[in-house]
Amino acid sequence: MDIRNIVYLSILSILFYSFPLYSVAEERPFSLNFWPLFQYLSDPVEGTQKIEGMGPFFFWQEDPHQKQWGIRPILSWTSDDRESLQRLEFAYPLGKYQVIDGDKKGYFALLSLFREENVDGQKRWDFQFFPFFMGETEMGKDYFGIFPIYGFLFNRYGKEEIRFYLWPLYSRSTSDGVHTTQLLWPFFSFIDGEKKKGFRFWPFYGRRETFGTSKSEFFLWPVFLRQTTGMDTDDPMEERMVFPFYLSKESKHFESKTFLWPFFTYTRDRLTGFEQLDLPWPFFQSLQGEKLYGIKFFPFYGYKEKEGDMKRIFILYPLYQREEDQMREGEERTHRLLLLIRIRSGGDRQGVLRESSLRIWPFFDYEREPTGHTTFSFLYLFPFKDEGFERNLFPLFRIFRWEKDPQKGKSVDFLWGFYKRIEREELDFWEVAHLIGVKRGKGWKTVSLLKGLFYYNLDGENVNLRLFYLPFRLHWSRQRSDVLKSTEKEFADGG
User: Fold this and answer.
1) Residue 175 parent element (H or E)
2) What H or E segment, with its residue span, contains residue 11?
3) Which of 96, 174, 273, 486 lies 20 to 30 angstroms, CA to CA, from 157?
4) What is the mean pLDDT of residues 10-18?
């Protein structure tokens, strides 16, 4: 027999003897581990199955409500019955297609966009693949175009209608009965409507008026500006600007003046008693008002507090920052060191800790949620959390992960499955690649070395032993051994 046949038979033997011996094992976790090429784990109690290949690059997993598979970082697929969700991500975050409750959305690199939604029982959709676009509103109006040559849109970008020809040469939009015409945007603009009039010859001169509400005009933008707002109230606001030398806002109850923007500013609200002084910004600032106080000597020290709402402190920014926020359910505190270390905790009104987190970027991240779900990860690529990155990118760089769930117990994963462990009530299961695996529960235990070189199984009073991948096993009952020992003892005692 040549070496190739011996290798084939050895692999088949290892695969065959990796499966459990008894049907009762169908109710226990089963694993098939050939790290890092292939790993399979099935947990009938939780109803989960998981396959990983080539370390973290290939994955497939399923639970009673969700299915996922992917090839990181190229693409991933998710289906969730609870949310009526189907999602395909490719080269995330460049591309994504998602369906939730019949609403469809998709994009790729911001060049291609697709959306289909139901609004009050009416379907609307739009599609874009730059420079082409087309769509249909919920009222059944179609639109299309080739940017910047020609096109028209309905109910997009906050406008009822938009039309353009050889943009920026000509465009026209309509909203709330107001028509805006642009010629050689942004230089010439004309506004016409029942409630609004205006024109613009940018940057030399322009004016706009909303009848009875506001009016504004500029000259040599952004140097000279004059604007009045709130004309339909008893406290209209007047704004004047000679940029950057002088800016002012004034009304009966409010005033703000800035000299050499943005350095010197004084603001006062006579109704609330609020006052703020920047002298010069951002190095010195003081503010005070109703239940509000703050002082800042940047970058050495800063303090800001609004009673019953929030508190902010920094010392030698960005060396240390502290944030406190009062919420309806309790309060949240955050400490930051050098923008790399973040410590966050949240508690209820009685001071009981409900959630906490510690992140030292890019080394590790620890988080405990209000539900008690806790995770710890070593090597955390980005200083923020994102579900898409968690599915597609984070596992490629995560060396170690520990997880605790009040319902599902604990789990550990090191080096993408080289060492893994699951602990929960009446179960303790751990493996080191394909080298050694131990499973134990109430009344049973299994130990395996090299997938069958040594295999020991204890199930109640029954014991099975297999050595050297041999096609047979030794089987005996511990109860029978105990009876035999008792009989031998009685015989030795002369019974």
Assistant:
1) strand 170-175
2) helix 3-17
3) 96
4) 51
